[in-house]
Design goal:
- The structure is a single chain.
- The chain has 20 helices and 20 strands.
- By secondary structure, the chain is of the alpha+beta class.
- It has two domains: 303 residues, no CATH class; 186 residues, Methylamine Dehydrogenase, Chain H (7 Propeller).
- It is globular.
Length: 659
């Protein structure tokens, strides 16, 4: 297997490199960047090639480092239940019961707030819990900590309570029938339900409406409980319940596992027979519950080692993992100019504007993108098969299936983490007023996420300053004209000191030009001019700063790859009506610029690394700057030039006046 993978990986890399010249004609798209919730001007084809390259590299890693014996037969483990604290908590019936009770209570509260509460999404607990805390936050928790869902799943807990009650009332067989789960169904029911969930999230226009959320939860409950009753609780949770399947896949990445030693508790467990090759049963929570205390282990293990354990990669599970990856990518694709213009064109040609047209094309895309991803995956697998000489296609497809999980997890984190950080703060207020009825149970009802002033960065139009201190009622304070809309796009901007400064600093960008010219995006200073009796401003362009090609000794490289534009910049902590700023300039390194009282911009220093491509610069204190470099990682710089004296004004606080 390693030799096969090495040859296939070599061929795959060659195929990718042969197609790189096509990037020359790539057009701008929108993608997520580091550290902010913003749009990054990355060509769409570069983004797609990056996705393909990520899949390819995963194949290489799995092929080179996963031997024939795999990882199931030996990796370092530390049983946490050997320690008193963990044994007294995580193995405690009272502790686990408390977690399950809290889960059910929150589950019921979400349904009640959805049905009875204020239907404004930001004032109701249900949308924040479902779409932010649970879907984003809990998914990351499972991947980075362990499969808590297997313990606190409220649908499972409620069914167990109801089943126990029925048995106490004299019905010996309880709520579960003896009907076998059809082997041919595999996890396809779970995939179908997960597709519906993602459709509601991305396509359905009322996904944030609390009452709709409650309705879909109740509908999903009825399907899940019916499946548990018909085929048995464990069988349906293992293959029919969408989120049990989803979280079990993510949990393979986690640094924890539950293990039953010896396998005696697992002799009649179909899941262990089909998914475990050794005598121990791993991550089967049904067996873990049935096992004696001496057979149970809660282990720390190397992160992601669970992905290397073979087994369980059926066709349905492979399709599930492909859809996990494709659905997050599709969410990002919905915001690209290519997709928006394409949908507008199709709707204009067919005359299908409105809700029905959006539903149709949104659903069509949600089907097409996973099929495209599967075609890409199958192509690499087929290449491996050809280079490997005789290996079965489906055998290779199953062997590489779990290589998709880290990619899906990384896409999920990169795409949604700012949603979790910013929108998750609404939970403080919603805890005191979950129904939106004006309560203040814990004294946090007045908590509000205030982001101050927002500087928009449109592609080829005037930038706008928005007052978003009341997020529900943003106000346009003023606009600044674009000096060269045909040449470059506005990329980022800042109005320092929460809009109290006399300058607004903007930065333009135009990429993939080997030589600098007047069409490259400059750093620009605008003067904020208060319009009398209007509570509005106009912004007057004062100066532009551009870099040039020249000699490396002078900080000016002779040629460029990404271009001559600045990228992310930040003003100095002492900024007040001018001062120092640091800007990442791709191959031109980091430039330290001084903005004078009249707005004139001059360079006071630079750092030009060898073979670097600097994306962003951040002041850590008066003199230390961290720069993020696409090729080098993070450089730590000390600026020793002028302009760093004076009182700290806090002008560069992240999230305050940043575009």
């Amino acid at each position: 297997m390693p030799a096969l993978a090495r040859r296939a990986a070599t061929a795959s890399v060659a195929v990718l490199l042969w197609s790189v010249p096509a990037l020359a004609d790539a057009r701008p798209s929108l993608a997520h960047g580091f550290g902010q919730r913003y749009d990054l001007p990355v060509p769409l084809w570069l983004y797609l090639y990056g996705a393909a390259g990520a899949v390819l590299l995963s194949f290489v890693v799995f092929g080179l480092f996963v031997g024939e014996r795999g990882a199931a037969h030996g990796y370092p483990r530390l049983n946490l239940l050997r320690f008193g604290f963990f044994r007294a908590t995580m193995a405690s019936r009272a502790f686990v019961s408390g977690l399950r009770l809290a889960s059910v209570a929150l589950f019921v509260l979400v349904i009640l707030t959805g049905l009875l509460g204020d239907q404004t999404p930001v004032l109701n607990l249900a949308p924040t819990i479902v779409w932010v805390i649970w879907w984003v936050g809990f998914s990351l928790f499972v991947a980075l900590a362990g499969n808590l869902w297997a313990i606190v799943n409220p649908l499972k807990v409620v069914f167990e309570w109801a089943d126990g009650l029925v048995r106490r009332l004299g019905v010996d067989e309880g709520l579960e029938s003896d009907a076998p789960y059809p082997a041919s169904w595999d996890v396809w029911p779970a995939l179908a339900l997960f597709f519906v969930f993602v459709w509601v999230e991305l396509v359905f226009p009322g996904s944030a409406t609390p009452r709709n959320i409650a309705f879909f939860i109740l509908l999903y409950c009825s399907v899940t409980w019916a499946g548990m009753s018909l085929f048995g609780k464990e069988a349906w949770l293992r293959k029919g319940e969408a989120f049990s399947v989803f979280f079990s896949i993510l949990a393979r990445f986690a640094p924890t596992e539950v293990r039953v030693k010896g396998g005696k508790a697992c002799e009649e467990c179909d899941a262990c027979e089909s998914e475990s090759e050794d005598e121990d049963c791993v991550n089967c929570y049904g067996c873990f519950v049935r096992a004696t205390p001496g057979e149970r282990e809660l282990n720390l293990r190397p992160p992601a080692v669970g992905l290397l354990r073979s087994g369980g990669t059926s066709g349905g599970r492979l399709a599930f993992m492909v859809f996990m990856l494709a659905s997050v990518t599709y969410d990002g694709l919905l915001a690209t100019p290519l997709w928006v213009s394409g949908m507008f064109y199709l709707q204009s040609v067919t005359g299908s504007f409105g809700v029905l047209g959006s539903l149709f094309y949104g659903t069509l895309g949600l089907v097409a993108v996973p099929l495209l991803f599967f075609g890409l995956y199958a192509g690499f697998v087929k290449l491996c098969q050809v280079m490997g000489g005789g290996a079965s296609f489906w055998g290779l497809a199953g062997a590489f299936a779990y290589s998709l999980v880290p990619i899906a997890l990384a896409y999920q984190a990169a795409h949604y983490y700012t949603l979790l950080i910013l929108e998750g703060q609404n939970l403080f207020a919603l805890a005191s007023d979950p129904f939106g009825w004006g309560w203040d149970l814990f004294g946090t009802g007045g908590y509000e996420v205030k982001e101050g002033f927002l500087v928009t960065s449109p592609i080829s139009d005037s930038f706008q300053i928005l007052d978003v201190r009341n997020p529900l009622k943003p106000k346009v304070l003023g606009r600044g004209a674009h000096p060269q809309p045909e040449s470059f796009l506005f990329h980022s901007g800042v109005w320092p000191r929460s809009g109290g400064d006399k300058f607004v600093m903007m930065q333009g960008e135009k990429n993939f030009k080997p030589r600098c010219d007047k069409g490259q995006g400059p750093v620009m200073s605008y003067r904020a001019i208060d319009v009398p009796n209007s509570n509005r401003y106009r912004f007057e362009l004062l100066d532009r700063y551009r870099v040039e090609n020249g000699a490396y000794a002078n900080g000016d490289p002779a040629v460029n790859a990404l271009g001559c534009s600045a990228h992310w910049f930040e003003v100095h902590p002492t900024w007040k009506d001018g001062g120092m700023l640091a800007a990442g300039y791709y191959e031109h390194g980091t430039h330290f610029l001084k903005v004078a009282d009249d707005g004139e911009i001059t360079r006071k220093g630079y750092f030009l690394p060898n073979a670097g491509s600097t994306s962003a610069a951040y002041w850590i204190n008066r003199n230390v700057v961290y720069t993020v470099d696409y090729t080098r990682g993070i450089d730590i710089l000390r600026y020793t030039g002028p302009g760093t004296d004076g009182p700290i004004t806090g002008a560069n606080q992240r999230g305050t006046g940043r575009g």
